[in-house]
Write a structure and sequence with these properties.
Blueprint: H1 3-8, H2 19-37, E1 45-47, E2 52-53, H3 58-75, H4 79-94, E3 101-102, E4 113-114, H5 115-132, H6 135-151, H7 175-188, H8 191-205, H9 227-244, H10 247-261, E5 285-286, H11 287-304, H12 308-323, E6 340-341, E7 351-353, H13 354-370
Antiparallel strand pairs: 1-2, 1-7, 3-4, 5-6
Protein name: Beta-L-arabinofuranosidase domain-containing protein
Domain Non-reducing end beta-L-arabinofuranosidase-like GH127 catalytic: 111-263
Pfam families: Beta-AFase-like_GH127_cat
Length: 371
C-alpha cells in the first residue's frame, strides 16, 4: 500500500465532503429505502452481505417523519414532505386497535404492541398533525399516548409490552418514550402526558450511578451498553427536563454527555460500547451512537450557552462524514450510514440501518443551522 493510500485509509485524514452533500446523500438513501419497502414505510436496513433490503420498520419510520419534514424545509424540496406524509398515513393504517405500534419489522411473524416503538411513532404522528392539522394524525397520536400512559407502572417504569426482540423487559432508554409523551403534552395540551414523562425520568434516575452511568440500558448487554442506547436515554432525560423545566434532569443528562465525551477518540468516533466506568468496551464504533451524541452535545450548547459542547459534536460529525460513501456506484449503499465502523463491527454487522441515516441527517442539520 502506498503512503497516500495508507493516509486515506485513516478516516480523520480523508477528504470530508461538504455536510450538505452528505446530508442530501443520506436523504436520497432514505428515499430509496422507503421505495424498497413498497408500502410507504421505510425498510429497516440494507444488508450488504446478503444484498437484500429488510421489511419496513414501523418504529424507525415513525421518527424519520419529522426528519423528512425538517429536511423539506431545509432543502426547499417538497418531495420530502410528501414522503413524510406517506409514512405517517401508513403508520395510521397499521396502528393496532389498542393504540400501540407493533414490534419488529413488517415481515416479523409475531404481531404484538411494544412500548418503545409506540413512543417513536408518536413523534411522527405529532409532526404530521402539526404540519397538516389532519385529524387522523391527531387521533393516532392521542390513542398512542393514552395507551402508553395506561401501560405505565406507578413508579414510572414500563415493564409490560416489552419488545420480544430485545433481551431485557425493563429499560432506562425508554426515557425516549417519555420525551415523545412530553412533546405530546405540549402539542395536545394534555398535562397527563407530561406527568407520565416526568415519572419515567424520575424512575430512570433511580438507575443512575454517581458517575452518571445507567443500569438497564442496552438491547442485549446491560454491562456494556451501546452508545446508541446511552444516547436514547440521555436525550430523553434532557428533553423532558427542558420541557418540564426541571434543571436536575438537564444536569443529569449533561453529566452523562460529559462522561461520553471523555471517551471520544482522536478521530472523533466513540467506542461502540462503554462499561460502567465509562471505559471503551469495544474496538469498533457505533455510527448511530456517534450521530445521536453529537445531537445531544449540540442541544446542550444551544440550551446552556456553553459552546465547548460544539467541539465534540463537530468532531463526531466529521468522523461520520468521512465514513459515508457519497460516490458509490451501488445505490443501495451510496449515502447510507453503516451500523458499525468497521462495517463488520458488533452492531448491525454489514448493514446500513435507516436510523443511522436519520440521526446523521438530524445532527448535520443542527450543525449547519447553528453556523
Amino acid at each position: 500500500m502506498s503512503v497516500v493510500a495508507r493516509l486515506l485509509s485513516r478516516p480523520w485524514l480523508r477528504p470530508v465532503p461538504d455536510p450538505r452533500v452528505g446530508l442530501q446523500a443520506a436523504a436520497e438513501w432514505l428515499s430509496r429505502a422507503q421505495d424498497a419497502s413498497g408500502c410507504g414505510g421505510v425498510s429497516a436496513h440494507y444488508d450488504a452481505a446478503k444484498r437484500k433490503w429488510a421489511g419496513a420498520y414501523p418504529e424507525t419510520t415513525g421518527y424519520i417523519i419529522p426528519t423528512f419534514f425538517r429536511y423539506a424545509d431545509f432543502s426547499g424540496n417538497n418531495e420530502y414532505r410528501e414522503r413524510a406524509l406517506r409514512m405517517a398515513a401508513w403508520e395510521s393504517d397499521i396502528q393496532l386497535p389498542d393504540g400501540g405500534v407493533r414490534a419488529g419489522t413488517m415481515d416479523a411473524t409475531q404481531i404484538v404492541p411494544t412500548i418503545f416503538n409506540t413512543g417513536q411513532v408518536l413523534f411522527g404522528w405529532l409532526a404530521a398533525w402539526q404540519q397538516t392539522q389532519d385529524a387522523r394524525f391527531r387521533d393516532s397520536a392521542v390513542r398512542a399516548a393514552d395507551w402508553l400512559v395506561a401501560a405505565q407502572d406507578p413508579d414510572g417504569a414500563w415493564r409490560r409490552f416489552a419488545s420480544p426482540f430485545a433481551a431485557h423487559a425493563v429499560n432506562t432508554y425508554n426515557t425516549r418514550v417519555a420525551f415523545a409523551l412530553a412533546k405530546a403534552s405540549r402539542a395536545l395540551q394534555e398535562p397527563r402526558y407530561l406527568d407520565a414523562a416526568i415519572r419515567n425520568v424520575q424512575w430512570a434516575m433511580t438507575q443512575m450511578h454517581p458517575n452518571g452511568w445507567l443500569e438497564n440500558n442496552d438491547l442485549e448487554d446491560n454491562k456494556r451498553p451501546l452508545t446508541h442506547t446511552i444516547a436514547y436515554a440521555t436525550r430523553g432525560i434532557l428533553e423532558v427536563g427542558l420541557i418540564a423545566g426541571d434543571s436536575a434532569f438537564v444536569d443529569a443528562a449533561a453529566r452523562i454527555a460529559q462522561a461520553v465525551a471523555q471517551s471520544q477518540r482522536g478521530d472523533g468516533a466513540l467506542p461502540g460500547r462503554l462499561d460502567s466506568a465509562w471505559r471503551a468496551a469495544s474496538r469498533w464504533s457505533c455510527m448511530t451512537g456517534n450521530a445521536q451524541m453529537a445531537i445531544i452535545w449540540q442541544r446542550l450548547a444551544a440550551e446552556t450557552g456553553e459552546q465547548s459542547w460544539k467541539t465534540a459534536a463537530q468532531r463526531a460529525n466529521h468522523f461520520n462524514l468521512s465514513i459515508q460513501d457519497v460516490a458509490a456506484a451501488d445505490e443501495t449503499v451510496r449515502g447510507g450510514v453503516s451500523g458499525s465502523h468497521p462495517r463488520s463491527g458488533g452492531y448491525m454487522k454489514n448493514r446500513y440501518p435507516n436510523w443511522a441515516a436519520k440521526f446523521f441527517m438530524d445532527t448535520l442539520m443542527l450543525q449547519m443551522e447553528a453556523g
